[in-house]
Protein: chitinase
Amino acid sequence: MVFAQALAAGATLLGLSAQASAFDITKNSNLAVYWGQNSYGAANGAGANNQQPIGFYCQDDTIDTIPIAFVTQFFGTGGAPVMNLANTCNNVDNKTITGTDMPDCSSLASDIKACQAAGKAVTISLGGATGSIGFTGDDQATQFAQTVWDTYLGGNGTVRPFGDAVLDGIDLDIEGGATTGYTTFVTALRKLMTGKTYYITAAPQCPFPDAYLGTTLDAVGFDAVYVQFYNNYCGVQNFNNTNGWDFDSWDNWAKNTSPNKDVKVYIGAPAAQSAASQGYVDSATLAGILQSTQKNYTSFGGAMLWDASQAYANNRYDKAVKAALTGAAAPAAPSSSKPKRELNRFFGRWD
Ligand SMILES: *[C@@H]1O[C@H](CO)[C@@H](O)[C@H](O)[C@H]1NC(C)=O
Ligand SMILES: *[C@@H]1O[C@H](CO)[C@@H](O)[C@H](O)[C@H]1NC(C)=O
Ligand SMILES: *[C@@H]1O[C@H](CO)[C@@H](O)[C@H](O)[C@H]1NC(C)=O
Ligand SMILES: *[C@@H]1O[C@H](CO)[C@@H](O)[C@H](O)[C@H]1NC(C)=O
Structure:
């Protein structure tokens, strides 16, 4: 992992950790980009621009926060959760932590710390579309909050897939399983979250209210929601359709229903044609949507993209999006991805 070491060394030499501005959740120009599932490789054939370790995506100021995707099982062998990071780290190709099916990804710890030193918030996302997830009830939810704290955050459990790297929070991308227990889980986790700033986000689908997290989003405070405005009639592709696009409902929820009245709503979008079955628009079109929403809604927090591998393969779509958010001159960005739209079992399922 030459580049990760180079990045860490560079960060030290240049004093980047001192200069980098820390992630600021109150801004309306943040860019969240999921990393972990190698969506481009999955959709375009193995070996096609394979996902690089996380540090690769932290070498400039484009991305502000990275949810790592995904914890796919809450209670696996030995009671430990299971995480899958596609080609970068998984429990088939990589060794597992003794007595569990959790892969040992601790060689990524230096990458994660380098991302954090560069001012990015790195969180762990729970779920994804095929996750074996959910709680039998509140007791399990409370227990799992402790597990997540010990496994990824400030706790000190024996199962630490990222070693001594302490992530900056969690993201809930719940697209299956039972809906029970999430309010208890978030409440219990919040109580444990002391010692530094931690974030709790969610990635609901755009139809309001969200089928899995709707009641939880109403009951406990989240820091941000990365609304998936894709793979649905209400996606960015239907921005001009009054029966399609509906940021209003989310803005209204943020201001009037959410227990955290400062919760930020992000527009989640696919970073390339092959990143979703529905909802990709070119970067100039998305730029217009982002800027118009940013102007009209104080709840707007920025953009979320699925995912880093797709954005990098698509002419650095992430850069064009960040430029739109910060009001920098929108770069001419022809969306000349190679749209080989091959559906496989990951495609459209890990959104
Ligand atoms: C996991 O295994 C793959 C395949 O051998 C390897 O390329 C990768 O670097 C390993 N990941 C980690 C985090 O050690
Ligand atoms: C975690 O820290 C607590 C408090 O210092 C300590 O009691 C406990 O033994 C530690 N657990 C592990 C697994 O190190
Ligand atoms: C919405 O309409 C505007 C003006 O006609 C157009 O420039 C833009 O591309 C349209 N957006 C979408 C997502 O179709
Ligand atoms: C923002 O408000 C203007 C003026 O009312 C309107 O034309 C535009 O469609 C709105 N944009 C969004 C994204 O709501």
The first strand starts at residue 30 and ends at 33. The domain at 3-326 is CATH 3.20.20.80 (TIM Barrel). The pocket of 2-acetamido-2-deoxy-beta-D-glucopyranose (ligand 1) is lined by residues 88-89, 93-94, 105, 107-108 (CB under 6 Å).
